[in-house]
Amino acid sequence: MRFAISAAALLIALSALDTTHAQSAAAAPGDIPVKEVQLGAETFARAAPLPAWALPLAEIPATTRREPVVLRLAETQLLASDGRGVLINRAIQVNDTSSLASIGQFTIQFVPQYHRLRLHTVRLLRGSEVLDRMEQVQLRFLERESGLEGGVYSGAITAVMLLADVRVGDTLHIVYSIAGENPVFGAAYSDTASWDQVEPTELRRVSVLAPADRRLDWRMHGDHRTSRIRPTESTRGALRVLQFEERGLETVEPESHIPSDYVPLRFIQFTGYGDWGEVARWATTLFPGVTQLPPELAPVMERLRALPDPQARAAGALQWVQEEIRYFSVSLGESSHRPYPPAQVVQRRYGDCKDKTYLLVTMLRELGIEATPVLVALRSPKVPARLLPSPDVFDHVIARVELAGRSYYLDPTRLGQRGPLSRMGLPLEGAKGLPVRADTTDLITVSAPNALELATTEVHEVLTLEALDGDGRLDVRRSWNGAIAEVLRVAFGRLTIEQQRSQATADYERRYPGITLDGEPRIVDDLARNTFTLEAKYKLPKPAKELNGDWAVRFFPTNLAGAINLPQKMARKFPATVTTSPYQAQYQLIVNWPDNVSMVHDPATQRVDSALFRAQVQRSFRGNVATLNLQYTSLVDTVPAKDLAQLAQDVQKLERTLGGVIVVNRGAIKSGGLFGLGKTTLQQNLQARQETELRRLSTTIAEAKLSGEDLAEALCSRAETLADSGKAAQGLPDAQEAVRVAPAFGRAWQCRGNLLFGTGEYTKAVPDYTKALGLGHDAFMSYYKRGLARYYAGQYEAAAGDFAKAIESKQGNDESDGLYARLWQIWALQRAGAGLPPEIVDAARKGATGAWPRAALAMAVGALTPEQLIAEVERKQGDERELTLAEAWFYVGQHHRGRQDIEKAKQAYEKCRALGITMYIEHVAAGLELATLK
Q1: d(Cα 267, Cα 107) in Å, to the nearest integer?
Q2: What are phi and psi of 577, to 5 degrees?
Q3: Which run of H or E residues covers position 25?
Q4: Which of 184, 211, 480, 531 is deepest in the core (most CB within 10 A)?
Q5: Do the beta carbons of residue 21 and residue 356 sit within 8 Å?
């Protein structure tokens, strides 16, 4: 084990541009350098006698198994005294030609700096014959640095034994021992012994010999097979002997997607450390305090001290170490764990994770910043918490920095990190680490309070069509934060302009065949926020497709691609890692259809809640503008094997909810008529669409193929379409039936609340919205609708509270919805006689020129006049103008009513009603207000 970062620890998938995790890039793999070396007799001996400490060898059991490879015997003896040693006794039978290499080429890896390899037995068992191959076996010692391409040189040697004349049915019996241990560990003992194997095993035996007067704890770990082997105890002179044994072990077949914190194969851990504090105190000897930095760093330190605050100094020091000290690990002997002195690292200008961390911590302390090395497990970040205290469980080092009461975790082996410490990526979120301090007593959790924010990707797409059968334009903005931004910053910096063009179109070519860039892609690298943004404009050949008079364009959120990776084989034994957590994807699509398209769909939200993820999809269609917003949040990264089938259903539900197409029904396409005569109006199109939707839903329900929530959804859609047509009383029975057939479906209760509201039963609607909330239905819409019911029930304070909760539930997403709720909150507070909070007034005043309905908010707090508001709306065109006017006249009516100018209020409400946008809450509310003013 060494504190050297794995070269392929975290990879970037440039073709997707939506990697969720990344680490500093390594060179592309090539041929592993191999050099043959010669070893002296003190390092290797052939035909050596067994070590004096060894126990009698286990006898090789017979086997009738016919698997390709069978371990007849797998015996391990461990010496846990000052001499340290391991003896391996293996008997491997091969029953298949394709597996003969398992015994024909046998390898042993060791480190000659502190190991001594002794070969005791090499023989083939062939039927009743015993063929001694000790002298005939060809031995080569290869310096085969498999990690060199990733910047790791360990000095390990591989002994390769080549046996001639091996045949199907032969058993290779080999016994060897390795004496010695890395001196960096000192007197304390720790080691592991595997138990389960990927091959069936007739006899597995592990024996450990330790001084009786020394502490030695042990534990068997494993998540798949829960049985634990209890050892027999005996003595051998002054040594205590623990012997573990099990016969007839079945194979454990590996599976893909196994979580890093899941242990599929049992193993035994041995340790002489009493607690994690002892391990930490051992580690402090590796990172002693350095009183003086090398003179070469003086100008660097002077520049860092001149920075304005400690966080900027820490970030500057981190960036210097990351970029000026290249990653390369020379892990020979004790340097597998002991870092090189900072002066030597600076002089070499290279080092591995422990070297770079030691240098960074030293620089930070010199700057007066509290910094500590932290040992972590890069390959299995959360596993140390499950293990006995031991230094063996760690393979990486990072630095912890304490500033203003907050801990920051910095990895000097990464590249591309920018901005304040709080905006830097933390791929080890949730890892268990050990601070290298004398006062450490336990592991800590490596975490950042804004981890989800840093793992958020945003995609904004605007697709514009001048004609249904014409070409289109697509404007795209994609943004990444934290670790992903850092990887892309480095990766894009290495690409040529042509490669950048290729990557900019990679996610869209299959969806829109023939797509081409319109100009060059634009990179916006916000170093202050550590956000990386790619902007591009595209030309699309005829993106809308016609089918039976309907038109549709395809879409898919690029930041959802690869977010969930289900294993190919769903029936499995082990849990599966299918996503990354934390991770959040925010996606918005706006489709600007041609002017002859006219549809009205109020924002409708659908949720998909799974044990793995939470997703919310909101759709709206206003005139010729369709909008879709998606927010996807991963909740966990791992799913138990038994839950994979349910997860697959949840994924399919998400796919159905997204749909993948934006459709314009033929009834929503306005006819111009001959010379403009007979042109259909917006209201006529809305009415025709409602009638078409009612027929479709009625047919679907009458077919009696739906049940449960699907039936309830259809009933609710029909009920609400009737309400949108001004026929709420006719739709109420459907809503009541929806509750009956799916009483645990929150959407059904909200639907019934909507219909009760539409029939004037405001007080009865309130508990239905409350029930919908309790069942986990869309929080915003439930609070918003309950607020409306309470408002018209005269419960103004309670209504204002509901609108505030609706705004809070948006959490910064779908801002327009939050603005509508804010309008109603202001009116509720005004009618309750309460003053408006200053922050609401200030925000409304400042946003007067923003997107609709910000101007209405400004008018609500007196920053705009009604005349200015109507003039603003009159500048809009087509159906959008008419739809927005329907809202604006209601808001003007609310303005005048709040000032007790009843006549002007009535006039405004009547103008709202005259526009005939019956599905808008403003149209309904204007009627309610007029009824109270008679």
Answers
A1: 21
A2: -90, 115
A3: none
A4: 480
A5: no
Contact 359, 377 (CB under 8 A): no
Q: What is the pLDDT of residues 437-459, one digit of tens each?
A: 999 999 999 999 999 999 999 99
**CA–CA distance, 130 with 153 (Å, rounded to integer):** 41
CB 199 within 8 A of CB 250: no
| Dihedral over Cα of 640, 646, 648, 654: its sign | negative
CB contact burial 729-758 (16+ within 10 A = b; e otherwise): eebbebbbbbbebbeebbbbbbbbbbbbbb
* Number of C-beta neighbours around residue 289 at 10 A: 8
Q: How many residues does the chain have?
A: 934
Q: State both tokens at 4.
A: 């050297």
Q: How far apart are CA 407 and CA 444, in angstroms?
A: 11
- With contact defined as beta carbons under 8 Å apart, do 373 and 414 qualify? no
Please tell me the distance from the alpha carbon of residue 690 to that of residue 665, in angstroms, as a whole number: 12
Please give the C-alpha separations between residue 329 and each of 158, 345, 363, 399, in angstroms, as whole numbers.
19, 11, 20, 18
| Of residues 833, 837, 772, the one with CA closest to residue 806 | 772
Is domain 673-777 annotated with CATH 1.25.40.10?
yes
Residue with tokens 């809450």: 921
**Cβ-contact 540, 463 below 8 angstroms:** yes
The pair of three-digit structure tokens given for residue 434, joined into one six-digit string: 């050990």
- Establish whether domains 34-272 and 282-449 are of one fold: no
Whole-number Å distance between alpha carbons of 247 and 271: 25
Domain ranges of the chain: 34-272, 282-449, 673-777, 836-934
Asked if the 282-449 domain carries CATH number 3.10.620.30, the reply is: yes
CA atoms within 13 A on the CB side of 345: 30
Say how far apart CA 600 and CA 619 lie, in whole Å. Answer: 11
pLDDT tens per residue across span 16-62: 223 222 333 333 334 445 678 888 889 999 999 999 999 999 999 99
pTM score: 0.78
Residues 6+ apart with CB under 8 A from 675: none
Contacts of 185 (CB under 8 A, 6+ apart): 282, 337, 391
DSSP 8-state code for residue 553 = E
- The strand ranges marked E within 52-198 are 69-79, 85-94, 105-110, 116-126, 129-132, 138-144, 152-153, 157-162, 171-179, 190-194
| Average pLDDT score over residue span 232-237 | 93
Residue 202 is given by DSSP the state E
CATH number of 34-272: 2.60.40.3140
> CA 540, CA 554: separation in Å to the nearest integer?
12
In this structure, which amino acid lies at residue 453? E
Three-state DSSP state, 922: helix
